[in-house]
Write a structure and sequence with these properties.
The chain is mainly beta. The protein has one domain: Methylamine Dehydrogenase, Chain H (7 Propeller). The chain has four helices and 33 strands. The strands form eight sheets. Strands 2, 28, 29, 30, 31 and 32 form a six-stranded antiparallel sheet that branches. Strand 20 and strand 21 form a beta hairpin. The structure holds fe (ii) ion. Fe (ii) ion (FE2) binds next to strand 20.
Length: 491
């Protein structure tokens, strides 16, 4: 086919834009704080070609790396494709050659064996390098100054895992990168690689373990002592893939689990603890220790938030009927057989962020996106699950105190990034893209970047950067300070 389908994966903020461009000196309303000096990178799925199949989904689209560069109050914008093996093969052919999301049995025979990852999920910064990641393959290194693709990253040939998560965790105190890859040995392999890179970016540890079932492990958490793998019953099946079907199917009747081991320990020390049945989570906020207790805070839902993963498992729950909460799971590690104690922390939502310094440690604030119960009209169409969030929440997990930032009617919010302040006692800033509708046509909107005081989100933006363009939805973003950019490996 040569036309883009008119499904939720291609309309609203998922409308294909397919533009590589550079804009300098975007108009700014308000004042950009002096702390906001560096780059806000975004991972944007935007397929260069119409898909092979009408039931294509946004997660299957080519990764673009976008950057808002904040330079002493001026802001420049750039966006380029990540030149993955897949992108280059299709560019050469001038058409899609790769078939369904994470199903190589649906590809054009000419690309058999070519790496399928689209590097479209999270920009990751570590040890002076920028990577574009997606959990089905290794990360692609990108030059943070030119946005040119450097190539696939395998720790100078040391990494055995074929995959690298889009959600590694950096311990801000040690500078180490903790990461994993599931389906580490290839398609539907039950092995998970658990790895540590030191503060200089050297791979110092890689161990493999088998997970209890073949689940999608999208995120994990660390504490000062532990590495924690919460897993949920959305499962892969090789026979279904060979029949041309979906990679993932949600199983409403199967339990979740937590795998927990000492973070510097051996995978043989992993304890698997059974959790609630049928639940799903893509992102954990944070985890930390309080004596023998380990708290794990997660964006939990009663089923999988992606309609196509529910449908593949025969789960019939409408998107609007999904229920969930920001939830705390607590384990008492002094017990021989620790169990999960569950309590709600806040309203449902996702795309959670915390200050880098709080990673794995006791914390008293986090931010996430949710639906504003007072908003009039339907949410803006688009984004990975087909509807965009319209409220930014700041929560104090210790006492449940909530504040909310609203957006103009019908607007959508993308995941924020946190920027620390140099002023002692100041809580820093958030940057995020807001898509503001211009007309009832869901493809007609203008994308802005809002800069917000992190501890006063209810006050709204202190600065609005106007692109004048409708930008395609991101998945995740990352803030990188000027100091780190200046010290990067590539120039
Ligand atoms: Fe994610």
């Amino acid at each position: 086919m040569t036309a883009f389908p008119q499904t939720i994966h291609f309309i609203g903020t998922n409308t294909p834009r397919r533009m590589e461009l550079s804009l300098r000196n975007l108009p700014v309303e308000g004042q950009i704080p002096a702390d906001v000096e560096g780059a806000f990178f975004r991972a944007v799925p935007d397929n260069a070609h119409a898909p092979m199949f009408d039931d294509d989904i946004a997660l299957n689209h080519d990764g673009m790396i976008a950057r808002f560069n904040f330079d002493k109050g001026a802001v420049d914008f750039d966006i380029r494709y990540v030149e993955t093996e897949r992108y280059l093969a299709e560019k050469q052919a001038r058409r899609a050659l790769f078939g369904r999301y994470r199903n190589p049995f649906t590809d054009d025979p000419s690309v058999e064996g070519v790496d399928r990852t689209v590097a479209n999920t999270t920009p990751v910064w570590h040890a002076g390098r920028l990577f574009m990641t997606k959990e089905d393959g290794r990360g692609y290194e990108v030059n943070p100054h030119t946005l040119a693709t450097v190539g696939k990253w395998d720790y100078e040939g040391k990494l055995r895992s074929q995959t690298f998560t889009a959600h590694p965790r950096v311990d801000a105190q040690t500078g180490e990168l903790f990461f994993f890859g599931y389906e580490a040995g290839g398609l539907c392999d039950p092995n998970v690689a658990y790895c540590i890179a030191d503060k200089d970016g050297n791979l110092v540890k890689e161990q493999w373990f088998e997970q209890p079932y073949l689940s999608t492990i999208h995120d994990f958490v660390i504490t000062e002592k532990y590495a924690i793998f919460p897993i949920f019953p959305t499962l892969a099946d090789l026979d279904r893939l060979k029949a041309g079907g979906a990679h993932w199917a949600h199983h409403q009747d199967k339990p979740s689990y937590i795998g927990i081991m000492p973070r510097y320990g051996d995978v043989s020390e992993m304890k698997w603890i059974e959790g609630p049945v049928g639940v799903s989570c893509f992102h954990e906020v944070n985890a930390y220790e309080d004596g023998d207790l380990v708290h794990i805070d997660l964006c939990l839902t009663n089923s999988n938030a992606f309609a196509f993963m529910r449908e593949a498992g025969g789960v019939h729950i409408d998107q609007r009927e999904l229920q969930g909460a920001l939830t705390r799971w607590t384990l008492d590690m002094s017990k021989a057989d620790p169990q999960i104690a569950e309590r709600p922390l806040g309203p449902p939502g996702d795309l959670c962020r915390l200050a880098d310094a709080d990673q794995g440690r006791p914390y008293n604030r986090a931010w996430y996106l949710s639906m504003n119960p007072q908003a009039k009209g339907p949410p803006m169409l688009g984004g990975p699950v087909g509807a965009n969030f319209n409220a930014l929440l700041r929560i104090e997990p210790g006492n449940g105190r909530l504040t909310m930032m609203e957006v103009p009617p019908g607007a959508g919010i993308s995941e924020p990034a946190h920027i620390p302040s140099a002023t002692p006692g100041h809580g820093g800033w958030l940057v995020m893209v807001i898509d503001v509708p211009n007309s009832p046509n869901p493809a007609d909107y203008s994308s802005e970047v809002w800069v917000v005081e992190a501890d006063a989100v209810e006050n709204g933006p202190v600065a609005r950067v106007k692109t004048g363009l409708p930008l395609r939805s991101q998945v995740h973003g990352a803030w990188v300070s000027r100091e780190r950019l200046d010290a990067s490996v590539h120039h």
